[in-house]
């Protein structure tokens, strides 16, 4: 079998894999997996609400135990050097709530030793402390030092609720209620974690740290955030949550936001048996997914995202068989039915409040296939396309959920990961992806003001080494791939200096086996951190970028394609970004769909070159 025949066979195997797994409604539903956080919250919620879901709790506990390392720790990515303290504390807490294991279990003792060695509960991420405080396991006053009245500050105020990005607002509204009410819920299942608070003065010390960091903010708070406004703010926060309850009962489709909202509603006087809270818990359970022999609660199912990517990849395969055409057509029908009133799409099919740029540009790539012959599809496409153009920032780039939300003073609030969540600046991955869509699908090139401003933004935001930082993937390989393919689709020549720098950088980090691999440490350290192994998704991103640049195949490209086609990569590494150092996603579709896209482009561009030889 020739080299090209092997690549064609690999492409066919991927196509058949996707065709066999498409759902009856036209969607694809691959697991969107994260660490212990959502499983732990779900166990706690089920215990707090006293729901008869013992089998579910046992299965969630089983997954937590399956993720524990031999040294007793839990990790968010396999190359974490010494375990993750917050993940370990959360898993430890969830297992005690489950009742499946006790503190005396040897596995729990090893976890306890690690937690103590790392400084105990006070050294965990604020989101972990928040979860503990909700359950009377950690002191409240300094967990979230932002006042509830943030919600009623006018839009012209330097810091106000409207400046937050949309998916953060649904979390913050619930968090602000819980923090203001200092809600704590204790049940017969609530464990005692006092042995993990290693200093009696932890509360006083943390208070002093917060006051030392934000004396001005505290003085302003004392002056203008009067008590008479707090009732109004509390009502607004409650209304904000209730207005965004999805049909499945979740808050914005997110397990994280829904879990906190349940505690906030309890704080506001809703009974644990109220239909609103019961439906919210049912929505969380509905986010479950089977992974091997385990059950996992996804933070948000990736149905829209997976369906858009896979349908686009099948369409780009240039396979004209009836099965592929039907699969793409059914996927397009599924997506049109899930289009939001804004004209855009969200990440999950139950998400009707939080459209985003990436899911919209991805959905449009599929919908455009039928738009030429179907009026309904054409109308959906036009609405989505217009929304996408409106989302361009003034600086020329695109963010995720909101436009022109990148420079708010909100990012200076003293909360961990605030810059990674609350604001929504232009990013290379989003800008590159939209640029690639506009060039590839809409034939928009240089000379168009939308294109020119995006190209300018990318050129000005390239790293010195030639890479770009990607916000929603891991990380510099992802951003560089998106920027390169976007610039090429917009008509930039291969010898455009930023493209030459990017090519040199990608080649310089290629591994001996032909693949590419990047660690989740990259988004924490803000510079490229290699993995000790290659992954299929990251190899596909790097390859796709090099293919976009080079008119003829190169040694680096062929070496990478051999690696990809022979399926040598380590699968399952989390290549989806969430919160740097705190939350990562393992999209189970990624190790399949991105290789298919790279192979499609390779065959389309170079098959004539091989046939002539």
Query: In DSSP terms, counting alpha (H) and pi (I) runs of 4 or more, how many helices?
Result: 25
> What is the CATH architecture term of one domain?
Alpha/alpha barrel
The number of strands is 5
CATH class of one domain: Mainly Alpha
Which band does the percent of strand residues land in?
A: under 5%
Distance between the termini: 15 Å
H-E string: HEHHHHHHHHHHHEEHHHHHHHHHHHHEEH
User: Uncertain regions: pLDDT < 50 for 5+ in a row?
Assistant: 206-225
Considering DSSP H and I runs of 4 or more, what fraction of the residues is helical?
A: 40-55%
Inertia-based shape: globular
For the biggest β-sheet, the strand order reads 1-5-4
What structural class do you assign from the helix and strand content?
A: mainly alpha
User: Main β-sheet, in a few words?
Assistant: 3 strands, antiparallel
Q: What is Rg?
A: 24 Å
**Roughly what is the average pLDDT, rounded to an integer?**
92
What are the SSEs and their pairings?
Layout (H helix, E strand, L loop, with lengths): L2 H19 L10 E2 L3 H12 L5 H14 L17 H14 L7 H12 L8 H9 L31 H16 L20 H12 L1 H10 L5 H14 L11 H13 L7 H12 L1 E4 L2 E4 L5 H14 L5 H16 L19 H15 L3 H16 L27 H4 L6 H13 L8 H12 L15 H14 L7 H12 L12 H5 L10 H14 L5 H11 L10 E4 L3 E5 L2 H23 L1
């Amino acid at each position: 079998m020739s080299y090209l025949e092997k690549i064609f066979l690999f492409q066919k195997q991927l196509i058949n894999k996707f065709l066999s797994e498409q759902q009856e409604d036209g969607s694809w539903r691959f697991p969107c997996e994260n660490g212990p956080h959502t499983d732990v919250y779900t166990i706690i919620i089920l215990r707090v609400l006293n729901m008869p879901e013992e089998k579910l709790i046992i299965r969630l506990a089983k997954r937590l135990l399956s993720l524990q390392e031999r040294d007793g720790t839990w990790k968010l990515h396999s190359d974490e050097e010494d375990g993750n303290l917050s993940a370990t504390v959360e898993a430890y807490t969830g297992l005690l709530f489950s009742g499946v294991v006790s503190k005396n279990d040897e596995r729990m003792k090893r976890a306890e030793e690690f937690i103590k060695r790392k400084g105990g509960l006070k050294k965990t991420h604020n989101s972990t402390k928040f979860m503990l405080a909700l359950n009377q396991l950690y002191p409240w006053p300094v967990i979230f030092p932002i006042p509830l009245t943030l919600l009623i500050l006018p839009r012209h105020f330097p810091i106000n609720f409207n400046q937050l990005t949309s998916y953060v607002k649904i979390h913050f509204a619930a968090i602000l209620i819980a923090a203001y009410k200092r809600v704590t819920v204790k049940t017969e299942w609530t464990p005692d974690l006092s042995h993990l608070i290693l200093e009696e003065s932890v509360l006083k010390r943390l208070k002093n740290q917060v006051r030392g960091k934000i004396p001005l903010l505290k003085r302003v708070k004392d002056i203008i955030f009067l008590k008479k406004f707090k009732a109004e703010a509390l009502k607004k926060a409650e209304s904000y949550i209730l207005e965004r309850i999805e049909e499945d009962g979740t808050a914005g489709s997110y397990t994280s936001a829904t879990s906190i909202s349940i505690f906030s509603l309890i704080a506001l006087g809703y009974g644990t048996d109220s239909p609103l809270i019961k439906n919210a818990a049912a929505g969380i359970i509905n986010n479950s997914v089977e992974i091997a022999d385990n059950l996992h609660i996804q933070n948000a199912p990736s149905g829209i995202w997976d369906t858009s990517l896979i349908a686009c990849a099948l369409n780009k395969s240039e396979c004209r068989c009836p099965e592929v055409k039907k699969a793409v057509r059914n996927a397009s029908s599924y997506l049109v039915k899930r289009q939001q009133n804004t004209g855009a799409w969200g990440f999950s099919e139950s998400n009707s409040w939080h459209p985003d740029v990436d899911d919209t540009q991805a959905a449009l790539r599929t919908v455009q296939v039928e738009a030429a012959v179907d009026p309904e599809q054409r109308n959906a496409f036009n609405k989505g396309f217009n929304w996408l153009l409106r989302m361009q920032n003034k600086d020329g780039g695109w963010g995720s959920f909101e436009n022109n939300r990148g420079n708010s003073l909100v990012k200076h609030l003293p909360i961990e990961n605030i810059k990674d969540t609350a604001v929504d600046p232009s990013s290379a991955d989003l800008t590159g992806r939209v640029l690639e869509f506009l060039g590839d699908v809409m034939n928009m090139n240089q000379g168009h003001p939308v294109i020119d401003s995006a190209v300018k933004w990318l050129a000005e935001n390239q790293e010195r080494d030639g890479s770009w930082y990607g916000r929603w993937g891991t990380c510099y390989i992802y951003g560089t791939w998106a920027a390169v393919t976007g610039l090429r689709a917009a008509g930039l020549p291969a010898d455009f200096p930023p493209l030459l720098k990017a090519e040199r950088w990608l080649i310089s980090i290629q591994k001996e086996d032909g693949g590419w691999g990047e660690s989740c440490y990259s988004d924490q350290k803000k510079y490229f951190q290699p993995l000790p192994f290659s992954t299929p998704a990251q190899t596909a991103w790097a390859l796709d970028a090099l293919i976009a640049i080079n008119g003829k195949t190169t040694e680096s490209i062929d070496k990478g394609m051999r690696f990809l086609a022979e399926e040598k990569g380590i699968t399952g590494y989390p290549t989806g970004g969430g919160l740097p150092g705190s939350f990562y996603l393992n999209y189970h579709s990624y190790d399949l769909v991105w290789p298919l896209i790279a192979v499609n482009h390779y065959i389309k561009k170079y098959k004539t070159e091989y046939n002539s030889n």
